[in-house]
Amino acid sequence: MSSNTIPGLMPASVFRFRPRALELLRQRYTRHDALVDGMAGITVGLIALPLALALGVASIPTGLATPSPAPAIGIFTAIIGGFIVSLLGGSRVQIAGPTAAFVTVVLFVITKHGFDGLLLATLMAGVILVVMGLTGMGNLIKYIPYPVTSGFTTGIAIVLIVGQSVSFLGLTAAAPTEFFDKVGWILTHLPQVNITTLLIGLGSAVFIYYWPNVRDRLHLGRVPGPIAAMVVSAVVVAVFGWEQSRGVATVGSQFGPMAIPRGLPPMVWPEISLSRIRDLLGPATTIALLGAIESLLSAVVADGLADDRHDSNTELVAQGIANLTTPFFGGLPVTGAIARTSANVKAGGRSPVAGMVHSVTLLLIVLFFAPFARYVPMGAIAAVLIVVALRMGEWHELTRLRKMPGSDALVLLTTFGLTVVFDLVVAVEVGMVLAAVLFIRRMADTTEISQVTSADELETAEQVAHGKDIPEGVLVYRIFGAFFFGAAEKMEDALLRAGKLPKVLILRLQLVPAMDATALNALESIVERMQKAGGTVILSGPHRQPLEMMVKDGFIERLGRRNVRAHFDDALTRAREVLATTGK
Asked: d(Cα 48, Cα 412) in Å, to the nearest integer?
């Protein structure tokens, strides 16, 4: 079989890099198109601002030395990474930047390896993403089991809610990093809650929830709830002086008056060594996989909304280039953001120009309005992220665990539990391995091997065994389903149950769509046993993939080409020839 028939490894996908922005050069892009995309980009930029700021704060531990303040890091990531993905990506409407899914893994890497380690891990993830895209692996990401993605998404949401509860409650002491330690710490420090900060957080969350109805009634256009909540809370805190009088923590009090510098950040060069690369390989792979999954899932959602079809491999290359760039500006990992991408389409965005305008909008805000960010209360930022976490969690999946297959429920709960208790790196690794093992078991369970007799009525006319004479000394078995290593043992067990080996063994393979090396090895063993006993094995109706695998391995030559037949009638004819030659 040529490589161009293997899904995900087609030559057309290998080393193909076709940014959707190039389509603008080949089509008529009108002034009206530019105006629509521009308005959509400005809208998404306003939506992205509070999220990027909040994600920067959530991802960087308080007091950590970084090239730029934490709020600025989130915004710079959205500006630089978002622009690159829109310019080079495989989706017309994808919006990229920092996302909540990365918060736990970023905190894990920073805790274990420092901020410089995060920058190197992000660079490595960028390389992995580029390689994945250039080798056509974008089509394979969709095969990651849904229970794995659902489990870690909900786990991330729980971790994010607990992590932001510290700022939401106005607690100022340093909280532990471990999940259960943090929960216990929060419970013991409840008497120290800052009531004003708590009310700001609750008010902001309620404000965001009801804002769409209020905005529509007041005809306020598309002003996003999170930015409205931050502006209102900042004005209230500044007017009433609650930062000083009631100890309300703000961006300015926590990160300094220049929390968001008026300009781009300085260049950063992470320390690179072989030992550090080895230590960070696991986290980098997790960042790459998470980025690929979230980006392509976002692109699929965008396809449905915009009636489009993205190029998954080009998208991975663009995401990789973005993650190769942002670390040099002290940025966070970049990925496609589902909520911002959906907002872009709903706002009218139809080309990559909208995504680039979104980044320019954020840049202009940084240049001209950065000083006002110092008044935003940390409780309002925490409220924004808690609302995001509540919306991103796959809560409905937890309610239907009893209706799921047991194996899927086990994978989901395991991935969820490991994400909460340990970290996303361990959760993804264990979840994928467990899902693979359970898949193998499921495939083995669905593959059936049964003896065929003249009473058999299954199959088409030329394959049917019903009413056909199966000579004495001929044993016929049908294999139904994929013949992988989980099912290979069933074949040998079937022969053991048959007792004495027959003169001729016919294996009917017309219902076997695929097989692997272990199954082929099992066939080799059966043929060797039969040949040593003076018997013959005949294969009936093998499909293309198993047949080409056997030809490539040389198995067909060892078996004898005359012993491979297109259908059951031919196999019976060949069996009679063998019996006539060897004698009954």
From this structure: 30
